[in-house]
Amino acid sequence: MSTDGTGWRKSSHSDPDGDCVEAARASDGSIGVRDSKDGAGPIIKFTPTAWAALLATLRTR
Hints:
Elements: E1 9-10, E2 21-25, E3 31-35, E4 44-46, H1 48-59
Antiparallel strand pairs: 1-2, 2-3, 3-4
Pfam families: DUF397
Protein name: DUF397 domain-containing protein
InterPro entries: DUF397
């Protein structure tokens, strides 16, 4: 997963002042998550299965 990838999307639950999380899908199908304030910072990489499980869990909260 590259920090220069396209298609990064902000969470709809993000703070309008810039404190937000972005996610993007890589060509290998993995999903990257990063802090938008530091586009060159670390990216947490999820498999599609792990991403689906995370979203399902978050939606029940």
